[in-house]
Here is the input.
Amino acid sequence: MQNSHPRTSGDSAPGDMDETSGSLASYTAGFFFALILTGASFVVARSHLLWAPGLPVGLAVLAIAQMGVHLVFFLHLSSGPDNTNNVLALAFGVLIVALVVSGSLWIMYNLNLNMMPASAVMEMQH
Amino acid sequence: MSASAQMTAADGAGPAPVRIVVAYGFWIFLLSDIIMFSALFATYAVLRGQTDGGPTGRDLFDLHSAAVETVCLLCSSYTCGLGLLAVERHRINLFYWAFALTFTLGATFLGLEIAEFARMLAAGAGPSRSAFLSAFFSLVGLHGVHITVGLVWIVFITAQLAVRGPREFVLRRLRCFSLFWHALDIIWIALLSLVYLGAQ
Here is the structure.
């Protein structure tokens, strides 16, 4: 009975599909979720539904939700035990991306604040 | 295979099958590619306001074109997945249709992006105009280069499947391609939100 199961190695590759749960249904569901979230991003950006200073946060939340949809429905990542390696690699990638992006923004913001205004530089050159 | 042999395989005593190893390695490559993109994303986020008195993103970006591009990429991701499903169920004709659609949608995306770049260059908003535009062209341009590579890959993998048949190594390469294509879609979502929608 176990022999009929195609996967016996205890690991699953990224992008692997589960034969039993119907991966066509998974792709279609992911496609519609992604369409809805993209539509929502455009509506939020074009209209005044959100408080203007909160707009970047709203867009970021929608984008991260959509990335999650892609990872789960298209790349078939799951929280199952056979997926630990793939999820760990992803978590490490996300950590590095977060460090690079937030670190750059933080450092450059501080540098920008501490820069001498252009007019003062011009005066010093005279 | 006996039950005990299966138990040892399940415990991870033997090497994982090639299919798992290749896909895992390719997954690591994709993550490193995303990290490379993150450096350009950080550059763009820092420089987006440095327009040097030139045109801003609000003046330049056409949201209609960005919306069509997004739908193209999303649909091509979906048809790519359908193609993979078709070939795993030995429906090769369906696979050809799905990948022809994937290619057409990807090429439409690329055409729209090139048209946008041409329009911006004609308006004097090239990469040398301001720091903001340099960051814009390197970030969006790199994504465009990835899409171009993906289109070439579609042609090669389809030809390989036609010549060699749906063998295991061809299927492995197909799975790698589909991971690549989906990852490009994920990067485009970040790009759309930060660059195009964020400029409004």
Observations:
- The CA atoms of residues 24 and 42 of chain A lie 27 Å apart.
- Chain A touches chain B through 51 residues (CB under 8 Å).
- DSSP finds four helices and no strands in chain A.
